[in-house]
Specification:
homodimer; 114 residues; mainly alpha; 434 Repressor (Amino-terminal Domain); 63% helix; DNA-binding
Chain lengths: 114, 114
DNA sequence: CCGTCATGGTAAGAAAATCGTACCATGACG
DNA sequence: CGTCATGGTACGATTTTCTTACCATGACGG
């Protein structure tokens, strides 16, 4: 069957390559942006070279993805509802019971006919 | 004045030390957990050694913080209040205007006397 | 005070990883 | 075909990390 067990480093490498190709960047452009040699970028995307924490951070910014995504493959549930950030600010500082009340209000809206 | 300009690596190192000490773990325990030598942990927490991406991931799990926090010092607005996940589910599927209404309701609660 | 243990800092040679500079393969395009 | 862009790879030089020590400090009990 399929399902080779790739190491975390290999999975990270694949996501790095995918993110770069999605943006249409060349390995050379990434190398210049991060001040690396191009072969280093090649190796990063094939799992043949370690990736330092600060490099990972800069790559995530360059590719406009989260570090969490590059490491785990999952976005941290943040990009989906964009306006949710606004709601998060709105409930910031509220007590736990108040947040629950806000949630109940949301449920109420969901159940009520439009 | 104060405000020494620390490098990103140094800031990461300080947060790693802080997170470990907050949990009351010894450098040796961390070294065993990540299968590293103890001097390596010492160097990681003093900025004297690079930290690989996968190591950063494992450290974040061990310390129960997000990778984003270790890198930037800020939580990605997601892990902080745990009940946000519940609120996110509650507003999922609501129309944009309804989410705004929920947010206004939250603001109302914030402004109203307890 | 003394001994001991836990913890963390550091040094030096050995080992490993990365870098720089090549050279090569492929594909698009004229 | 010639050329250009892109990406893969090899290998010696360089840099970094690891291993194994040894040392300093502080807590604690005798």
């Amino acid at each position: 069957m399929s399902a080779e067990k790739r190491t975390p480093r290999q999975e990270l490498a694949e996501r790095l390559r995918g993110a770069r190709e999605y943006l249409g960047l060349s390995q050379d452009e990434v190398a210049v942006a991060l001040q690396l040699s191009r072969p280093s970028v090649t190796l990063m995307e094939s799992g043949g070279r370690k990736i330092e924490a600060t490099e990972l951070d800069r790559l995530a910014r360059l590719y406009r993805v989260s570090v969490e995504y590059l490491l785990s493959g999952r976005e941290p549930e943040d990009t989906e509802p964009k306006q949710f950030a606004f709601l998060a600010r709105a409930v910031k500082g509220l007590s736990e019971s108040d947040v629950q009340e806000v949630a109940r209000f949301a449920e109420f809206l969901k159940k009520s006919p439009k």
